[in-house]
Predict the 3D structure of the following.
Amino acid sequence: MSVRMFVAANAREGLARVRRELGDDAVVLSTRPHPQGVELLASAYGELAAPAPVEAAELPGSSRILHELNRLRGLLQNQLAGFAWGSARRRDPVRVALMQTMFAAGFGGALARTLAARLPRGLDADAAQRWLRQVLLRNLPVLPRNADPVALGGVLALVGSTGVGKTTTLAKLAARGVDVHGAAGVALVAADAWRVGAGAQLAVYADLLGIPVHAAPDAATLTALLPQLAARKLVLIDTAGHAPLDPRVRDVVALDALGVRRIAVIAAGLQGAALEQAVSRFGTGAAACVLTKLDETPQPGAALDCLIRHRLPLAYVCTGQRVPEDLHLPQATYLVDRALKGARLATPYTLDADDWPLFAGVEAERAARDSRAA
């Protein structure tokens, strides 16, 4: 796009000059006061469809011009996406309804667009919803019963963000381990040196279960301790919780070199962006994950979305604070049905029919911004 700046004594003179030099179909992009009167940014209509970058040396105030062009580009993309959504809704209402269901349930745009593109032709609305349910069931990675990490034993470390329930989950797993291996076959390790009282809390659980708990405040201590626990069939390590972007998260990955299998603990109620960060940082390289606080999550679609896209196998779900009653093996049918049921909840965050074109515009603008950044 070629943009020119015109300065005139008033708007009428400026418009006359624009038409004279760029033609009657010229488009005025912006106007603003100028010491000499008024300043206009304009372009020939035919050049709007083929935008080209404006070089910094072309015009005075080129940064402002580029900013204005980016803003106008975003507005145009937003409007076009809204028009496209309306057109698609008329042309292929079943496919659009499927995407609306996924968005309303908390699933992200990437997965929703992928599944909508693969929807078989000729299905009615009900058949499309049944197809969606079956696809989600097939793709939700759930560990089989014979791959239960506690039953298999070994050294397991629970890793995850602060406040997702690692210590309580570890106590539940320890109780399950005692049932499987007996108290003599289970040991706990308190490796959380950051949270005040973490070791004391773990000691209470260990005392109730009749199993030992060992402190390992640093990597060197843990390295020396693990060989001493080699006779135990199950060793559970409670690690410190950090924000996903905290540099100390790299200490979690270092556990792999010690022969420790990591189990990512993910809170189901996190927002999509927070879930993505948590799964990306703690789930990469993990043997499996535990989905906690499911009882506090009316719409677990975002959590299932992350597990599906990252192919992170789900080992357990937690539905409350009771130890060990609120630890369960996952059932894909229950989880998918609950996620899809969340699409029918009426909340202040539910989109109305008139909101969907705006939502599509925001999604398109975000996708365009990401592609430019890449």
The chain has 14 helices and eleven strands. The two ends are 22 Å apart (CA to CA).
